[in-house]
Amino acid sequence: MEPFWNSKMFRYGLWVLLGLIIVYFLWLLKPVIVLFFSFLKVIFAPFVIALIISYVLNPIVKLLGERKVPRTAAVLLIYAVFLTSLAVILANMIPMFMNQLQELGEHLPELTLHTQQIMNSWDTSFLPNGVRMGMNNWFFQFEQKLAAGISDFMNNIGATIGVIFNAFIIPFLIFYMLKDFEVIERMIITYLPHTRRKSIVLLMKEIDEALGSYIRGQLLVCVIIGTFAYIGYMIIGMPYALLLASVVALCNIIPYLGPFLGAAPAVLMASAISWRMVLMVIVVNTICQLLESNVISPQVVGRTLHLHPMFIIFALLVGGEIAGIPGLILAVPCFAVLKVVIQHFYAYYVRRKTV
Q: Transmembrane region positions (predicted)?
């Protein structure tokens, strides 16, 4: 009988303990890590944005290349269509978006007061005093934070050198990344170790297969759902339709929780108007989600990430705790990449054990 410290259970327990210790120290270093990532975010944000857009557009460039169109000409064509469409959309949407945001900031105290009056008209005598006071405090804090956020956004948008610099540099980065996408791929491959090159290239292909159609499809689905929500809000006469539809589109990326998070601001806003408006907002969001789950996503997104719902919920909890709303948006794709990496290394480990 082998000693306990040589058994598999002891080794697994040791790895689990080591992992918990690492997580504990990372938690202690959270302020330093957040500060470090804030610095990296400023530096790498334009490159990441350009890389995502290039990654989304590259299949179209490759498709034109297969039809004997020179890559530079294909890039120029796609680039011109993309930038022209984006410029037309933003030129029409940004003024409307900013006007609605400014109007919301001006009428926020009135809307909050009206909502509190509606809630005060309810029979809440059965609730403890602490709960009623907590609800009132929550509304007050919500109004203060939202008003401060709107004010900061309105005051800072376009006012910093960084924003202006990114607005100029990102289009150039997109063009050169699209033009030299394959060159960049080959350059990265040449820097990989010869002994691991084949396996790493295979790993990257698996990640691309797992994420490619999902990311491109989700972006398109979000645009479609946001458009449907905007049309629906306009039909029912919902104020700040573009602003609230943008929240619906952005939150639609988040699995399971996204529809509720996206509808919450509109429902809260509608509660300051009438119960009829609340009902119509719920109907609009329900129709959008039924279309998304039964018609749009199966046709647009195609294959899924093949993640169990339990793992998706775990990823959302981790992402939300680490980075809030951006963490919720990025949690599932990052977890899918981690799954592919773990499967790849596990297969490599099994092959080594069997050889």
A: 12-29, 35-61, 73-94, 157-178, 214-236, 242-261, 273-292, 312-342
- Residue pLDDT, tens place only, 196-223: 778 778 888 878 777 777 777 788 888 8
Assigned token pair, 201: 């290239």
- SS3 for the chain is CCCHHHCHHHHHHHHHHHHHHHHHHHHHCHHHHHHHHHHHHHHHHHHHHHHHHHHHHHHHHHHHHHCCCCHHHHHHHHHHHHHHHHHHHHHHHHHHHHHHHHHHHHHHHHHHHHHHHHHHCCCCCCCCHHHHHHHHHHHHHHHHHHHHHHHHHHHHCCCCHHHHHHHHHHHHHHHHHHHCHHHHHHHHHHCCCCCCHHHHHHHHHHHHHHHHHHHHHHHHHHHHHHHHHHHHHHHHCCCCHHHHHHHHHHHCCCCCCHHHHHHHHHHHHHHCCCHHHHHHHHHHHHHHHHHHHHHHHHHHCCCCCCCCHHHHHHHHHHHHHHHHHHHHHHHHHHHHHHHHHHHHHHHHHHHHHHC
The pTM is what?
Answer: 0.67
Task: Check if the beta carbon of residue 246 is closer than 8 Å to that of residue 227.
Answer: no
Among 60-69, 79-88, 125-134, 234-243, whose mean pLDDT is lowest? 125-134
- Mean pLDDT score of the chain: 77
pLDDT digits (tens, 9 = 90+) for 144-179: 666 666 666 656 655 555 666 667 788 888 888 888
**pLDDT beyond 60 at 302:** no
Using the structure block, give the residue that is written with the tokens 């290394």: 345
Q: Rounded to an integer, what distance in angstroms lies between the CA atom of residue 78 and that of residue 69?
A: 12
Return d(Cα 209, Cα 223) in angstroms, integer: 22
pLDDT in tens, 220-237: 888 899 999 999 999 999
Q: Which amino acid is at 34?
A: V
Phi, psi of 71 (to 5 degrees): -60, -40
How far does Cα 153 stand from its chain's mean position? 19
Q: How far is it, in rounded angstroms, from Cα 4 to Cα 29?
A: 34
**Residue 236 and residue 280 in contact, taking contact as beta carbons nearer than 8 Å:** yes
